[in-house]
Amino acid sequence: MKSPELKVVEILQNNHIDIAATLPCDRIKCLLPLISKNIKTIPLTREENGVGICAGVFLGGGRPVMVIQSTGIGNMINALLSLNLTYGIPLPILASWRGVYKESIEAQWHLGKRMPAILGAAGLKFTIIDSQKDLGKIDAAIKDAFNNNHPHVVLISPSVWEGSSCEVPEVQEILPRFSELKLNSEIRKPVMTRYDAIKTATGIAGDEEILIANLGIPAKELYEIKDRELNFYMLGSMGLASSIGLGLALAQEKHVYVIDGDGSLLMNPNALIGIGAYNPDNLTVIAMDNGTYGSTGNQETATCSQIDLEFLAKASGIKDTVKVHTEAELKDALLRKAGFIHAIVKPANARCGEIALSANDIKKRFMGAIR
Ligand SMILES: Cc1ncc(C[n+]2csc(CCOP(=O)(O)OP(=O)(O)O)c2C)c(N)n1
Question: What is the C-alpha to C-alpha distance for residues 126 and 262, in angstroms, rounded to an integer?
């Protein structure tokens, strides 16, 4: 007889799922290795980051799934609503539902028992599976997500896996290695604005290349400087611009330039860790570092005097990093398609109008052009 784990993997394969973004739960420890054996798997460091990566995969023509613990949904709600629901981006999520069935960990109780009410109140579709005979409902949930362009959470009770056993995969020990951060970095007084830098980027990006703009003023500046079909304007989900970029870079071949911000990268440094694991040739993150949360009124961030973002990118494993202060330096870095460009810019916001496109228009136009 087929194990429940094998049934789940077959359902994923029958639905042509090509990327699984995962973060472990003890109850699915037999499912996870089976998934990674059969489907390209992206290990996550925080679930919210997976929402961005999976959105990028979908925009790039792929069919992602997330496989996580239900607690991770607590880390994802803003992204699911301000990215997936806003643009109409599908995402099937298989969540090991903790906190209710035979749960001894007290920390799981509060979120676990409220999870259906939280999902319902958030307007997120969900399905509960509490026995093996209901596993077929995963198929229906995946189809609902992709046919109706929204997330669909499947809460799977640990009762489904009771009696499961599997060979424990060989445990990978930490690799003995020597790390060296060979980087001398000088941050000088900024001379260009973010607007100047975005203008430079639009001058370099070819017609067939992708530009993703961070939420707030950067998206409006890009829209005003050069609106084009292969621009993806973020409207919410702060912190996920570079995660979306990674998903897009992994799912298709066009070059992806991400216009990110210091506040956003500090909110989700997991994005850098994810990129450092893959270093895709077709991804350039331009970190527009104005030392402030520019879009909300220039409140100081930790890059103003404390953190050097290029060091953070390097420490995360990103190979080709560079710091630029001038448009000429930025141009050079863009032309050689560096992995991470730390652009030191003034805290200045151009006066721009609103983006006259709905989220759905942005998505549809972008996906039409990417084919
Ligand atoms: C989770 C969340 N917290 C706060 C905000 C408000 N907010 C919108 S844009 C922004 C600033 C982004 O700063 P940064 O990434 O440095 O980019 P900049 O605007 O300076 O280019 C903030 C705090 C938000 N949209 N979402």
Answer: 35
* Cβ < 6 A, ligand 1 pocket: 78, 194, 214-218, 238, 261-264, 288, 290, 292-296, 301
Number of neighbours of residue 91 by Cβ within 10 angstroms = 27
- Gap from CA of 71 to ligand 1 centroid (Å): 25
pLDDT at 167: 85
Distance from Cα 290 to the centre of ligand 1, integer Å? 12
Please tell me the distance between residue 66's alpha carbon and the centre of ligand 1 in angstroms: 26
In the chain, the amino acid numbered 147 is N
For the CA of 260, the nearest atom of ligand 1: 15
The ligand 1 atom at the shortest distance from the C-alpha of residue 237 is 26
Give the CATH number of domain 192-370: 3.40.50.970
Show the tokens assigned to 192: 């260009």
Nearest CA to ligand 1 atom 3: 238
| d(CA 261, ligand 1 centre) in Å | 8
CA distance 214 to 219: 6
What one-character-per-residue DSSP string does 104-138 give?
Answer: --HHHHHHHHHHHHHHHHTT-EEEEE-SGGGTTHH
Is beta strand 125-129 parallel, antiparallel or unpaired with respect to 91-96?
A: unpaired
DSSP state of 279: -
pTM over 0.85: yes
Residue with the two structure tokens 């973020």: 234
* Number of alpha carbons in the 13 Å side-chain half-sphere of residue 118: 19
- pLDDT per residue as tens digits for the range 282-340: 999 999 999 999 999 999 999 999 999 999 999 999 999 999 999 999 999 999 999 99
Domain ranges of the chain: 4-161, 192-370
Superfamily of domain 4-161: Thiamin diphosphate (ThDP)-binding fold, Pyr/PP domains (3.40.50.970)
